[in-house]
Specification:
It is built from 4 helices and 5 strands; from the N terminus they run ββαβαβαβα. The protein is globular. It has 143 residues and is an alpha+beta fold. It has helices at residues 21-29, 64-85, 93-101, 116-124, and strands at 2-8, 13-18, 43-45, 87-90, 110-112.
């Protein structure tokens, strides 16, 4: 069994147990995963460190603040790459993603906004989509 930390589009965190990684992928593709708090079916894995058994830990864990800082930097780099290299199609994301998938529009990377219903329909139709990491908070907005 594999335990995954999961989150929905509303950032509700919860756990799920699966027989294999393929079981998670299959259930997600078929729209069987659902947030227990809001019933959203836009569920994704959270970034997790692998669980290793029988390995002696010789290096002290990173401090939580440093780990968070590294994760935020990685998310920021991904977002920056998408914004610099993909086409922003705004609120036409679902329509354009479907057109690209069906060959009615040129193959290219896009990003934009879509409603939870639109995202669910894209996933149910086998059109690959992923959420864009959020913009990092500005230092002036932090406590």
């Amino acid at each position: 069994m594999i335990k995954y930390a999961l989150t929905c589009e509303h950032e509700h965190g919860f756990e799920g147990w699966f027989g294999s990684s393929a079981d998670f992928d299959d259930q997600q593709e078929r729209g069987l995963l659902e947030c227990p708090l809001c019933a959203s079916r836009a569920v994704r894995k959270q970034i997790m460190a692998p669980a290793l058994t029988g390995v002696r830990q010789t290096v002290q864990d990173e401090t939580p603040g440093k780990t968070r800082e590294m994760m935020m930097a990685a998310a920021s780099a991904i977002r920056r790459h998408v914004e610099d290299n993909f086409d922003d199609v705004g609120d036409a994301f679902a329509k354009e993603a479907r057109a690209i998938h069906e060959g009615r529009s040129e193959e290219r990377g896009i990003y934009g906004q879509a409603s939870p219903t639109e995202v669910r329909e894209l996933v149910e139709d086998g059109i690959p989509v992923a959420p864009l990491p959020p913009e990092p908070p500005k230092k002036t907005e932090l406590n």
